[in-house]
Write a structure and sequence with these properties.
Number of helices: 17
Number of domains: 2
CATH topology of the largest domain: H-NOX domain
Structural class: alpha+beta
Number of strands: 7
Order of helices and strands: EHHEHHHHHEEHEHEEHHHHHHHH
Shape: elongated
Length: 335
C-alpha cells in the first residue's frame, strides 16, 4: 500500500476517453462512476489520482469486454498521449521510442516503470508498477500498453505479428485467448505481475516509414516534472482542492483516491498530526481568500463554491482566518 496518493497524467486515459466518445458512450457517467468527473480533462497534462484511473480501466473491461485495452488503441492513440506521445514519435525506430519511454516515464507517472533489455537477436521491454493493482485491472492496462507498443512497431513495418512474444497477467475469468487476434499469435501468462514484450531486432531497429507531424526531438521540456510528495497530507491537498471545484469533498472519496481503507487513511493522517477536516478547512480557506481578493463577483457565489450554506458563514470564517471582513480583503486585493 502506498504511503502517499499516486498520480498519473490524464493523457494516459485519453485513448479510452476518445474511444468512448467515438462509440457514443456516456463519458461523463463513466467518469462519475470512478470519481474523476471533477477534473478538467481538456488538459491532458492534468494530474489525476492513479487508483481512480485504474478503476476506469477495470470498469471498461467489465462493461465493454476483456479485450477493451486493445480495442481502444487506434492509429491516433499515440497522439492522444499528448506530450508523452510527442516524445515517443520523435524517435526514428521502435527501439529508440521504447528507450525514450523508459527515460520520460517519471514525467508521466512515478508509479509505473519501464525497463528495456538487449537480448542478442531481440529486445525485451518490461512494464511494472510500484503499487498493487488487482489482476483484472492489470490485464486491461497491460494489453493497453502492449497494443501501444505494437502500434509503434507498425510505424516501421506493416504486418500483423510484429511483437515476437507478449506475456501479461491473465484475466481472472476470461484468461488470455481473446487477445490472440489482436497480436497475431498466442499471448502467454506472465510469471509474475509484470508485462513483458519481446521484439525482434529486425523490427526494433527498422526506421519508421514516415515522420509524425506532431512530434518532439527533445526528451525534456515537453512534460513538466511530476511533483514528489513526501507525506500523505501533501499528496491529499491537490485532490481535495480539485474536488472542491465541483462539490464538497468527503473523506470517503479521498480514501478511494488513496487506495486505502477509511480507517487506514485517518490513522495515517493522524500520524502526520493532521486530519481530513484540517485539510478540507485549509483548502476552503485558500480557495475562498484567493477568489475574494481576485473577483468582483458576488460573495454568495464564493460562499457556495467553497461549501458554505450561507454567506454569513463565509464572513465568520474569513474573520477567523484573517481577522478581517471579506469586503476589506476584496478592497486590499490581497488573499
Amino acid at each position: 500500500m502506498p504511503k502517499t496518493i499516486p498520480f498519473i497524467r490524464a493523457s494516459a486515459m485519453m485513448p479510452m476517453i476518445n474511444w468512448l466518445r467515438a462509440q457514443g458512450r456516456p463519458v461523463q457517467q463513466r467518469l462519475e462512476a470512478v470519481d474523476l468527473a471533477y477534473y478538467p480533462l481538456e488538459n491532458p497534462l492534468t494530474v489525476l489520482p492513479l487508483f481512480n484511473v485504474a478503476a476506469l480501466f477495470r470498469d471498461m473491461g467489465q462493461l465493454e469486454g476483456p479485450d477493451i485495452g486493445c480495442r481502444v488503441i487506434t492509429e491516433n492513440s499515440l497522439l492522444d498521449l499528448a506530450g508523452l506521445g510527442k516524445v515517443l514519435l520523435g524517435a526514428s525506430t521502435p527501439r529508440e521510442s521504447l528507450t525514450r519511454a523508459v527515460t520520460v516515464m517519471p514525467y508521466h507517472c512515478l508509479s509505473e516503470h519501464f525497463q528495456i533489455f538487449d537480448e542478442g537477436e531481440r529486445l525485451r521491454f518490461v512494464e511494472g508498477w510500484s503499487i498493487t493493482l488487482d489482476a483484472e485491472t492489470l490485464h486491461i492496462t497491460q494489453q493497453y500498453v502492449a497494443a501501444l507498443a505494437a502500434r509503434l512497431a507498425g510505424l516501421a513495418e506493416r504486418r500483423l505479428a510484429l511483437l515476437d512474444r507478449v506475456e501479461l497477467v491473465a484475466h481472472p475469468q476470461h484468461g488470455l485467448a481473446h487477445l490472440t487476434p489482436w497480436f497475431g499469435r498466442p499471448v502467454h501468462a506472465a510469471r509474475g505481475k509484470v508485462l513483458t514484450i519481446h521484439l525482434a531486432n529486425s523490427v526494433a531497429d527498422r526506421r519508421y516509414r514516415q515522420v509524425a507531424r506532431d512530434r518532439s526531438d527533445r526528451l525534456t521540456g515537453i512534460l513538466p516534472l511530476m511533483e514528489v510528495h513526501d507525506t500523505l497530507a501533501d499528496s491529499a491537498r491537490p485532490v481535495i482542492a480539485a474536488m472542491l471545484e465541483t462539490g464538497l469533498p468527503t473523506v470517503e472519496r479521498l480514501a478511494k483516491a488513496a487506495g486505502m481503507s477509511l480507517r487506514t487513511l485517518q490513522r495515517r493522517l493522524a500520524d502526520e498530526s493532521t486530519s481530513f477536516s484540517d485539510l478540507l478547512e485549509a483548502a476552503r480557506r485558500d480557495m475562498a481568500l484567493q477568489r475574494i481578493a481576485a473577483s468582483d463577483g458576488s460573495l454568495s457565489v464564493v460562499s457556495a463554491t467553497v461549501g458554505f450554506a450561507r454567506q454569513s458563514a463565509l464572513t465568520r470564517a474569513v474573520r477567523r482566518w484573517t481577522g478581517q471582513a471579506p469586503s476589506s480583503l476584496r478592497k486590499s486585493g490581497r488573499p
